[in-house]
Structures are given as structure tokens and as C-alpha cells.
Design the sequence.
């Protein structure tokens, strides 16, 4: 399934609020908001729920992570081919909570290209974003460390890092979409991120831990 | 779902032969053999297929691995609570292809106990099996390194390591079931393992890469 | 060089206060206190200073860590044979800041035995200490997580975990020395640890970050 | 100590032929060849021998690896500050046998710059070399995977990857020196590498496992 810009990507991490039936319910809320407002939303469920969530909703589903192996004799690791066979649309790569070796990011981006899986490489600053851009993923999500899980809106702190990262990435490869991957809780934050040149946002706790996730998603969607 | 002894545990690893629909088909074959012959079979699917496979078959389903974290802000890792919410019965721990730190094995075994998840700790020799026994998992699967994926039957090479491991583990804690985790391809191997004191077997490629997995499973089941 | 009990082991970690010339000065302070008071002190310098410190002082020197490899084509890792050739007396294994896989602890303990290197396996609770004891290292250092770097004396918090760990380890193998690896800052703490059954202590910041490390060492030595 | 181009960098890895006294002897051989032929040679000893080797020879000494931490409460890891205090001139980063996370390569390169330590980032292909170039290390060493430890001279297999990597790196940052990090055993190979645009070579077993390392070094030096 294609991922259209601007996009809201929801990463449910390993939160207890997004497991089992609650994982499916959250994915459904994303699907409803997409249908009601016509916005683009992608959803990264718990790894063990991936194949099930793909069957339950009609929005792009992403793996939170994949290992830099080809299929084979490996236990307890998820390879890109399994993500693909599960029907997912792509994968996050190198999330700040699951950093990868440089050579493995390169492996994953180029293997995913062969499988037509969408790649979102997370980065923490401008030089790292430029390095990632040389690997030509579909998308780069900037996560300025000071904003991760801080509740501080990106428009208040470090807006320039988003702006400069977008420019630096586009200078290297204008086809890479850049997302704002931290400092997003509200529709206002989404709007600010888009004004800084981002083509979407990646967020987690703001949705997953909300009392009413659908309400938050509607607000976020209004920012696009 | 309870795991009864003697048991045949099938770990599908990250093989391309056990992804997506093929993962479900393999789980179904296990279910059929269990129903036809009344044997105990547990199935460890691809991590991303776990919740889906649990819904599709009526046999105990295991995770191939879980991380030693509590639920929370972790991306691309599977915690025990997500395994539990997916409806799985337990998890492999410390597989030879996914070794864990000693303190993490202890964490996983004791957290799984609270969630009533079944724990299968893999070990590579007698001292390590004894160390694992001190942590009181439900089950220990011995994988003598020389037999892993070798095609050599355990009855031909290193039968004594299984026998001595069973005795060493039972001396420490007689409630721990001991499985033979390598050197098993046929019903004859299963029979040999049980005669050496094992209460079941853990295998992978012998089933997953078979031309006719159900036939292999029937043969294995006849060894119990 | 033999390590006699009761022992004070000083781990200098990667502190800036214990690098280069300061690493040698700290090792000298240990040597002086050993000579002045006749106590047993072992010293674990920065990894890159190991061979140099061995040449500079006449007390047992330990590696802070070793990798579970045999010598060979590995870059930037320290194997036991290099520790041995550097003239060190042994190594810490599985420190709380450098946890190891269970099978690797087993590998290191049994390889070190062949090289006659002294092994100190760090553990975090009673079941893990019992598991470690099954591997028969020379020594186990208990580091109750709540006490690590807390400044809380072991006699005030969790004295029972030291006492019970000593008993549990000795029940499995009475030849293993048990050290108290956290909650030690003063000679009074050392005395308390020995009264709880420990045969020595392992400490770091209390010495390394002291304004006058030798004074602290003299106080610690008076507790033995 | 400055590293002049063209350079021969010798990485002794964790080979048994380069431990303890043999490590110092190898470093001396490098020093002698440097003095006799006036060539630039840098030497990366066993990690535990680093400070000692620095004192014993008058050539640039490199760490084989450093961890992406600041000094502090870390056990058994080597930080850049300890490398610096040991008197070393720089460090290898991201060797094919010790891969690092992208964000950690960035951390190490920028921290090393502050300490005036020379950085040699190892890479495995052209896109990864370009990514590394965006981080502005002093030097990039290309290690085409098929040539590592193969004994195949770089001039025979994959010469174009060296040539194209040099061009790609220089296009991004002309101040970065590019080394050929695999396929080098003889002076002829060194010559071929320099003709392909490399400014030096990084090698290991060819020197360390030679019957007469000094002879090999003399031959290599004649290729510069």
C-alpha cells in the first residue's frame, strides 16, 4: 500500500496500552480518521501483531524494525521478507530506541527496495541525516534527542534542526521525504512541522497514551 | 494453553518456507497431526505472525524470543506482555541463535512466571544447563553445538550429553522438563531422545524445509 | 599473581579520574596501602592501560572485561589470551555495566581456568548467583542493583541479600569466594560485608572519585 | 603524532602472534622500517597493550576501537579520552569486525575531533563510504567484503570499487584521505592501491602472521 504525503505515522512501541485487542482498536481509530478526513495515516503495531493488524485495517502498516539478515536459520528475529509476507507496506529503520549499524542500515534500505517495501530511516541530527540520505531511503524521520518524549513542541524548541535537516537531505536527494519525528502532540505541532518543510510526522506516546486516541488523531489530522 | 509432555516443538525460525500463508499452513499441519494422533505439538511462528497464528490454530503457540524489558517506550522489541496479549502460551528463551545475558534470562523466566507463560530456556552444554536450572524455567532444551543443523541423529553422536544433562537438571529441580533441541529429524530420533530421558524435542529445519512437512510431523509423532 | 582473601578489588571503570598517569598513580596508591598494611588489593585499570599498569605495580591486576572469543581475526576486542600475555592475574566477567550472555560466561570461566586466570563473575541477585556458581568461577561478586553507586551502605540496605547469596553459592560450591560488589565506601562497610560472610569487596567510585584515594584505601583496608 | 600520507596502517587484531612481547616486537619492526625507509607507518596494537606500546615506539599508535560513551561509570569499555590519555594518535572506527551504529560513528568522529584524535572509519561499499564521508572523519578505509582476508590482491578483484569510492568520497569532502583496507599483502598491492587513488593501506594478517614481519613491511613500504 502506497504511503502518501503528508503522512501521520503512529509507532505504538512496546506500550501496554497498544497490545492485543488494544493494538487492533488503535489501528481501527487510525483507519476511521483516515476515512473521515481523507488524511494519510500509517500504523506501526507491536511486532507480534503485525500480520494480524494488516488483515484488520485498510491503511499502510509498518514494521517497527527489521533485522539486516536474509531469510534463514535465525531465531526470534524479523527479516524484511517476513514483513513483506505479512502484508506490511514498509518498516521503520534505526529508530532512536533501536539503533542499527551503518552497514546494516544500508543493507536494509537496499533489500527493502528490491521487495518494494517503504523505508523510514530515523536520525538524530543533521550530519547523521545527511549520511542516511546517501543511502537513498524513501523517507528520513528526524528525532532531535532533546525533543523525544519531552512534550516540548518542535515549534518551541529546535525548529531550525528540522528546517536545516530538510534542506540538507533534499540537497543530497530531493526524492527523500523528511518527517518530523519528535516534539509532535497536537495538530498545531503538525502544522508547524509542515511549515518547517517536513512532509509528515512520526509520533508515539501522544496517540498511544492518550485517553481518547481518536480525538488526538483527529486533531493531528487537522494540522495536515 | 497447557503444554503436555512428551512434546514436539517446532521453531520455524526466519526461514522463507515459513512466512505469511506458509506459516499458517505449517501451523495447521501441526494441528492436524495433533488431532489425528493425539500428540502434543507446540509451534513457534515468525514473530510478526504470532497473533495471527494464535487465532488460526488450536495448539500452543510460542514466541521465538522475547526481550528482557517491561512494556514501555521501546521500538521494535517484543516484550512478554505483548506475547501474552497476543494469546501465545509461552516463549523460547536464549536460543542458540539469539543468546541472552544471564541476568536477562533470569528476568524473563521470573516475569513469565507472573504472566503464566511457559518458558523454554535453550542451553549448549551441561554446566550451562545446570546454571539455567537454578533459574527454574518450565523447560530446558539442550542444543549440543555439534548437532545443531547437522543432520546427525542425537542417538549417533553425543547421546550422553542429553542423558547427563537430564540428570544434572533433575538433580537441581525435578520439575523442569528437559527437551532434546538438536539432532532430531525422524520419529526414530524422537524415540531415542525420550529413551535418553528427554521429555520432548525442539526442532526446526527438519519440519520447515521438508517437502512434505505433515508427513515428517506424523513420523515424529510416532516416535513419542 | 595469587589473589588472597579478604581482598579489596578496585575497578576504575572509564572514569576520567583514572586515565593515563592518574591510572598509574591510583595503582601505586593501592600498592602502597598493600605494603603498609599487608592487606590484599587487586586493581582493574582502564583496558588500554592494562599491560602498562602490570609493569608499574606489584599487586594483582585484573582486566575489567574480556570477550568470549579465542584469539584470531577480531578487531577492537580483548581476549583472555591478551589479558594473560599482558601479565594480568585475571578478569572481571559480567559486570553490571557489561553484561554477558550465559554461554559466554561459561566460555570465559572455562577458558580462563586453562590459562590460570582468576575469574570474578558479577551477579545481581540470588538466583543469578546460584546460576553463576554452577559454572565454578573463582569468585562471585554480588551487586544488588539498588545499591550500585547509591552511596547507601550494604549494612543499612539489603544486608540479607549478601548473607543469603554467600550461603546459596557456598551450598553449590564452597570453593567460590563471594565478594560484596556494591554499597561499600568505608572501612565500616568492609567490616559489615565480611561479617555477612563476604570474603572481600569490589568497589569503584568510592576510591576513584575520592579527593584522597589513598586515605580511602587505608580506611577500607582497616575494615578487613 | 601526525599521520602522513601515504600511510601503511597495521591492525594486529586479536591474533595470538601479536600479544604481549610480540606486540611490542611488531611495533618495533614498524618503527625500524619507518626509520630505514622514511615511510609513514601507523600501528594498532591489542587494546590492552595500547599505553605500553605508545611508550615503546616512536610511530603513531591507534586504538582498534573506541566506544561511543563519554568518560564515566562504564566497565570494560574504552572511551576516546582513555585512548587520548594513553598517548595514542587516533582510532579505527567501525571496522568490519566491530561495526558501530550510525549515530555512534557520528559521535566518535565529532568527539575525536575535539580531542584532536585521528579517525579512520571503515566502510564496506560505495554508498556506505558516501554516508561516512558526510560525517567528516580524517580518513575512510574501504574494505570490500569479498577481499577481506581473502589473499586476493585488490588489483585483481574489485579495483573499481576502490577507484569509485575514492571519487565518491572526494566529491563529498576532498580533505578525507581514503585507504584501501583489504586485498593488500605486498608492495605491488600497495602500489596498485595508490594508483587507484588510495592514499594508503590498512592491513592485518599479511604482516602479523608473516614468518618475517619486517621483511613484509619493507616490501610494503617499497610500494609507497
Sequence:
Amino acid at each position: 500500500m502506497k504511503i502518501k504525503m503528508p503522512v501521520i505515522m503512529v509507532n505504538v512501541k512496546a506500550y501496554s496500552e497498544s497490545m492485543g485487542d488494544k493494538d487492533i482498536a488503535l489501528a481501527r481509530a487510525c483507519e476511521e480518521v483516515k476515512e473521515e478526513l481523507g488524511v494519510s495515516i500509517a500504523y506501526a503495531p507491536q511486532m507480534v501483531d503485525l500480520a494480524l493488524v494488516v488483515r484488520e485495517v485498510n491503511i499502510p502498516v509498518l514494521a517497527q524494525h527489521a533485522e539486516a539478515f536474509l531469510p534463514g536459520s535465525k531465531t526470534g528475529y524479523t527479516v524484511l521478507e517476513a514483513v513483506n509476507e505479512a502484508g506490511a507496506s514498509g518498516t521503520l529503520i534505526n529508530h532512536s530506541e533501536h539503533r542499527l549499524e551503518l552497514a546494516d542500515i544500508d543493507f536494509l534500505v537496499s533489500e527493502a527496495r528490491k521487495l518494494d517495501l517503504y523505508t523510514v530511516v530515523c536520525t538524530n541530527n543533521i550530519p547523521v541525516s545527511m549520511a542516511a540520505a546517501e543511502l537513498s531511503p524513501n523517507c528520513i524521520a528526524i528525532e532531535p534527542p532533546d525533543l523525544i518524549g519531552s512534550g516540548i513542541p518542535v515549534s518551541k524548541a529546535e525548529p531550525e534542526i528540522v528546517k536545516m535537516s530538510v534542506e540538507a537531505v533534499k540537497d543530497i536527494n530531493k526524492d527523500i521525504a523528511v518527517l518530523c519525528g519528535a516534539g509532535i502532540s497536537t495538530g498545531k505541532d503538525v502544522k508547524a512541522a509542515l511549515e518547517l518543510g517536513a512532509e509528515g510526522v512520526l509520533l508515539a506516546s501522544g496517540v498511544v497514551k492518550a485517553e481518547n486516541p481518536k480525538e488526538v488523531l483527529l486533531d493531528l489530522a487537522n494540522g495536515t
User: Anything to note?
Assistant: The mean pLDDT of chain B is 96.
